Amino acid sequence: MSVATIGQAMATFAVTNIDDLVLLAVFFGQARGHRAAATRVIAGQYLGFAAIVVVSIGAALLGAAVLPTGVLPYLGLLPILLGLKAAWEAWRQRGDGDPEQAEGTSAPGVWQVAAVTFANGGDNIGVYVPIFAVATIGTVATYVAVFLIGVGVWCAAGRYLASHPLVAKTFARWGHVIVPVVLIAIGVAILVEGGVFGQ
After folding, report:
1. pTM (predicted TM-score)
2. Least C-beta-crowded within 10 Å: which of 73, 113, 162, 174?
3. Residue 135 has pLDDT above 70, yes or no
4. Helix (H), strand (E), coil (C) string for 47-70
5. How high is the pLDDT of residue 132?
6. What is the Cα–Cα distance from 124 to 15, expressed in whole angstroms?
7. If you ran DSSP here, which 8-state letter would residue 146 be given?
8. pLDDT tier, 186 (very low <50, low <70, confident <90, very high otherwise)
9. Do 175 and 29 form a contact (C-beta atoms < 8 A)?
C-alpha cells in the first residue's frame, strides 16, 4: 500500500463525488433533528456506494456484460421518480402547519438514499472500471478502503453543511421545494450527460 496509490485513490474519490456532497446535505437537511433518520442516510450512502464499487469491480473483471454502458444514463430515471414522489408528498402536506414541525417526517429511507447514490454514480463507474481493470488486487483493495473512509468523511461534511445555521434555516423553510428540485435536476443531468436525448 504505497502513499502514491493512497493519494491517487483520495483524488479519484474526491473528483467523482463532489456532487454527492450536495445530495448528502439535502438528505441530512431532511433528517435534521432525527438521529434515526440521519443513520438511515449514512447507511443508504454506504449501501449505494458499495453497489457502485461492486459493479465497477465486476465490470472490470467481466467486461461490460455486468452493466452495459448504454444502461447507465437511464439510471437518471431513479432520482427523477424519487423527486416526483417527494413533490407529491410535499403537495399533499401543504398547509399542515409549520414546516419545521413536519421536518423529518418525510426523511429519506435507506433504500431511497442508496438508489439515488447509485443512480448518481454513473460517472464513478465510468472512472473506476478502467482503473480497476489494470490494477492489482492490492491496489483495488487500497482504493476500496480509501473510498469507504471517504464516504464517512463525505457523510460528516454533508451533515455539517446541513447543520450550518444558514443552510438549516433555508432548508427548514424551503426543504419541501429543494428536495424534489435537486433530485429531478440530478436525474435530468444524468440523462442529458449520458446522451439519452441525442446530441
Report:
1. 0.72
2. 174
3. yes
4. HHHHHHHHHHHHHHHHCCCCCCHH
5. 85
6. 9
7. H
8. low
9. yes
